[in-house]
Predict the 3D structure of the following.
Amino acid sequence: MPSLELDPGTLSFEAFGDAAAPGLFLIHGLHGDSASVRPLAERLAERFHVIAPDMLGHGESERLDAFTLDDQATALNQLIVHYGYPEAHVVGYSMGSYIAARAAIQEPDHVQRLVLVCPKAAGTTSSTVTAAERAGIDPETASADDLMAALQQAIWSSATDADRRREILAVVNQAENLSRKERRANEESIEGFDLRAGLPTVTARTLVLSGAEDGLNPPESGREVAGLVPGARFEVYERSGHMLPYEEPERFAADVTAFLTEGLSLIHI
């Protein structure tokens, strides 16, 4: 994978599609990496030049002992500048939505269109840690398998059967394994984040997507985000949980493509 030395740290990334197509930066969720969003990138690459970075602390990017959401947003904005886009589309999933929104707050001129998937506006800790604690599991000592078992009820829609869940996890779990220390650094990077004061300053045309059965960042969290961003559109996927882009991939790719190519047919709620 190519990499780039940026002010906050070294970022690795993958690129998909025609380099002459409009630029789209696809940002993965917590403890994921570019491999975990590769199927989404390949779908979106039919219309866009998709750049999928491993964010700081993830994948092949620099594993820093400590960093912040602002550092992640700065790295993303510098990556956009590196590619020479005067402005670009940014799609962020879960933690990636926090990074994408913060980048649009930091540098409004860099982001033309913004898609925030399963977002929330603020959090004292990561949604994963919150869900684990709710299930009675200590996230500091639990194994990755134990954490995933505890999250089953929080991340899936009841419409997604067991076979489909296994297929999705086979993709998502391609993300490089992290040590407990590295996972903790990633979680600490978003502890206490709060985008609420900055979201009203976002100038990018924005779409917010939430899963109806999302037990990590429920629809009311997405609705709050959409209500704070001027003119944002909000859509709930009734057959999705927190794994929305994977549970309804065809609809996700079609809706995102339509939004980014001016085909704004989604209902404004």
Observations:
- Residues 113 and 260 are 7 Å apart (CA to CA).
- The longest strand covers residues 10-16.
